[in-house]
Amino acid sequence: MKTMERRSTCPINFSVEIFGDKWMLLILRDLMFNGKNSFLEFRASAEKISSAVLTEKLNTLLEEGIVSKVVSPKNASSFLYLITDKGIELVPVMVEVLEWGSRYNPDGGPKPLLAQIRQNKKKAIAELQDKLRNERQSYVTATSN
């Protein structure tokens, strides 16, 4: 694993250097909230990330242990990016970003998820984290058979 050279030891700097740009947050959004996990699915997002930038960002997420890469059980020539436990720990942060964004952009955001969050944030986060773990496990099980 390649080690990223850090500008400082500040915890906020550490976090920002990993996922502090718009593309990383959008990839994390797609992994966590939109069920996307393939290169083509990420490319199909409304924001139109370039292939080169997407490759760079996915490699950073891999190097940092936020995602893992497995062969697709449906197509041996393609890969899936699965969120790791380290990445799943970011769900509460992403929920806060989602909530903040929806407060100031009321037309955006996944309405059912926002309703769950507003009803019981702690429960919604736990359920989302469990769902992500279960999805990852089902892919891992499918690829090991």
UniProtKB/TrEMBL annotation:
SUPFAM superfamilies: Winged helix' DNA-binding domain
Swiss-Prot/TrEMBL keywords: Coiled coil, DNA-binding, Transcription, Transcription regulation
HTH hxlR-type domain span: 10-109
Alphabetized InterPro entries for the sequence: HTH_HxlR, WH-like_DNA-bd_sf, WH_DNA-bd_sf
Residues in coiled coil: 114-145
UniProt keyword Calcium present: no
PANTHER family attached to this UniProt entry: TRANSCRIPTIONAL REGULATOR, MARR FAMILY (PTHR33204), TRANSCRIPTIONAL REGULATORY PROTEIN (PTHR33204:SF18)
Protein name per Swiss-Prot or TrEMBL: HTH hxlR-type domain-containing protein
Organism: Dyadobacter linearis
Origin organism lineage: Bacteria, Pseudomonadati, Bacteroidota, Cytophagia, Cytophagales
